[in-house]
Amino acid sequence: MTAARGVRCALATATLAVLALGTGAYAAQAGQPVKSTVRGRVVDANGKPVVTAQVLLVAILSKTVFAGAATATDGTFEFHGMQPGPYGLIAQSKRECAVSHAITVKPTKTYDVPMRMGSSSHCYGAIHFAP
Questions:
Q1: Taking the CB of residue 50, how many other CB atoms lie within 10 A of it?
Q2: Where are the beta strands (DSSP E) in the chain?
Q3: pLDDT band (50, 70, 90) for residue 21
Q4: For a 10 Å CB count at each end of the chain, is N or C smaller?
Q5: What is the DSSP letter of 36?
Q6: Residues ≥6 apart with Cβ < 8 Å to 61
Q7: What does the alpha-carbon distance between residue 82 and residue 61 come to, in Å, rounded to a whole number?
C-alpha cells in the first residue's frame, strides 16, 4: 500500500517521542529479504476511517520503534520487513489514541490488525500491549 510509504511523521506521547524516518516499508536488515507484513485499518468510535492517523510499529522486547506511517484516506496502513518477535501498534490522531494487542510475528506471515479509537482513549504514561 503506497500510503504507508515515504511518510515522515512525528508522534509524541508522555513516554514516547519518535521521528520515524524514510519509508514505512523496508527490509529489517540490509541484504536480507523482506520477512513479514503487518497491516490494518484505524477507525473512530463510529467505525469511520481515521485519515492521516500516525501509526507506530513498536518492537516490544527492545522497546524501540520499527517504523512509522500515516494512514491512507480509507484508514489503512501497512508495514513490511519485520524480524520474528513480539510487536505492538500505537495509532494517534489529534487527542485520540488506539493501542493494539501484542502481535507475535512469524517469518513470511501477514497480520491484519484492526484498530478502533474511542472518544475517551488517550496514550498517556506507560503503554502495555496485552497478549
A1: 22
A2: 9-12, 17-20, 37-43, 54-59, 64-70, 76-80, 85-93, 96-99, 103-105, 110-116
A3: very low
A4: C
A5: -
A6: 85, 86
A7: 13
